[in-house]
Amino acid sequence: MFNKLIAKSTGKSPWIFHVNTGSCNGCDIELVAALTPRYDAERFGFKLAGTPRHADIVVVSGPITSQSKDRLIRTLEQVPEPKCVVTLGSCPQSGNVFKGSYSVEAPLEKFVHVDVAIAGCTPKPEAVIEGLYKAAEILQRKREAMKK
Amino acid sequence: MMFPFLKIAVSNLFSKPSTENFPAENVEAKPNYRGRISYDAEKCINCGSCIKVCSPSAITRIYEDVEGGQNITYEFDLTSCTFCATCQDFCDQGAIQLTTDYHMVAEDPKDLVVRGTRFKKKIPGKLQVSDACIHCGICAKNCPQEAITVDRKAKTWEVDHSKCVQCGKCIEKCPKNALEFGESGPEGVLWDEEKCIYCSICAKKCPNECISVDRKEKSWEINRDNCVQCGICVEKCPKDALQIGTLE
What pTM was computed for the model? Predict the structure, then answer.
């Protein structure tokens, strides 16, 4: 009975960990804005976690600079399964205007499977909520698949 | 007043929450918000200026040969776009528009690519006019590149072949069917004797070694059978004496 209760409640509290890999701060601001009372992503249980070990969803922003690449991989390894990786904005998907630079390692797909891509430069907070909502659904699907 | 905040507190008790009820109710973006690109392939004349100005090179053009012409596909990769709208500004035809749609979330990034394909008929040669022309000027008005000039009084019809992109809009609009694309002769490198200084740079740069220049005799020759019209000689000529065009 307890397991059922836990399974139900974990689905309603997907915790986010946000990794900035050399982002211009535009996407980071919009992600935080999505958590403010105006847009209030916390209605759906999204909460910024302080450590990757507590997180279910990892939100990556920025074009993954060479300096942050190793740190990003180390962070992603610490997130317990099932996890969900979300890219915020154009940068982690393609490198945006920085693509081809010697110090940029985008796309993120090279290192880890990306579950949800939120496009925009930067995405509106509504789009961020939409993306996170989708990630939470995928997370729930992954949990059920893991049980079987 | 003992409780100046009481009025606000009571009114807030009955007012709606300031939080947007977002996924349940759709929120429209403000006007002039730059969101998802919409591309109208029918308006596009394939000038390529959008590709040139795109800073994250998010636009790709794909040519595909089909029967009777070719399919030209433009792909706008929204996962690469900065939504700067420079492509929209540079599109003279208004084929590219950035809409206020911001719902750009996908599990597969391939879903975030905006595509448009246009079929372009194979065009044999340059634009020509026949005697049926009544100098109405409709072709000139409809030319997106303003390549055609018509003088109704002097009864002249002229086309600037360097501006013409062979979109065929003038042929469609002509009420007398006086316009057509003529047969083109073989293309090749044209040599301007007056400009040439016989420096022989073209001969050195030619990858197929089909140009021979004699500095003493002042002669310039090309082996047309080996020439592939790569244009390297045209690019390297210091005096602009060479160009690729229709041979007479």
Answer: 0.68
